[in-house]
Amino acid sequence: MPLRDKAKDEAPSEWHDLKHSSGFCTKMKGDYAGSGNLVHLKWMHMNCDAEITAKAMDGAARNGHLPVIQWLHNNCYVDCTTVAMDDAAMNGHIQVVRWLHENRSEGCTKAAMDKAASNGHLVVVEFLHQNRSEGCTTAAMDGAVSNGHSNVFQFLSYKRREGCTTAAMYNAASTGRLDLIMALSKMLQADFTATAMKCAATNGHLGVVE
């Protein structure tokens, strides 16, 4: 078992003195934050002066560990990056997204809504639309359609103007989503029938072809 994996399963007091001078402690603080292990993270904070980097809060946000984020914010004055909100949005951690928006200044990028939409996290998409100014790209609707998230597609089509690319149509056909094919045809105002039907037939969706 790699040393870092082994250390995660042990109290830091069991390995700290041996590894402190190697830079290992900074990595472990990040690992503890990312895995939500606040008990071990607090021990390290009290007993080790190794730096806590932005990766700690970014990782905690990615995995939805709000108590860790709040503790880091209040006790360590640690930075994070836009990756924190981007990845929290990607994984649907709405409470983390909301807290970062209200308490931190790093913000997010267009990737936040793109990833949230692609993964079907409508509540997150709605929050970002209502509270943030970064917006999204065509990847948001493309991803929502590709993964069959019709509710997200509907929201984006009504509330956003970025639209999608022709890839959305082909992916809808490939997955047999006739409802999305029809909606996209109307929105794109173009006839992709031949190519879409070919994609559907190739993937065995004969009902769409008929």
From TrEMBL:
<dbReference type="InterPro" id="IPR036770">
    <property type="entry name" value="Ankyrin_rpt-contain_sf"/>
</dbReference>
<protein>
    <submittedName>
        <fullName>Uncharacterized protein</fullName>
    </submittedName>
</protein>
<dbReference type="InterPro" id="IPR002110">
    <property type="entry name" value="Ankyrin_rpt"/>
</dbReference>
<dbReference type="Pfam" id="PF12796">
    <property type="entry name" value="Ank_2"/>
</dbReference>
<dbReference type="InterPro" id="IPR052050">
    <property type="entry name" value="SecEffector_AnkRepeat"/>
</dbReference>
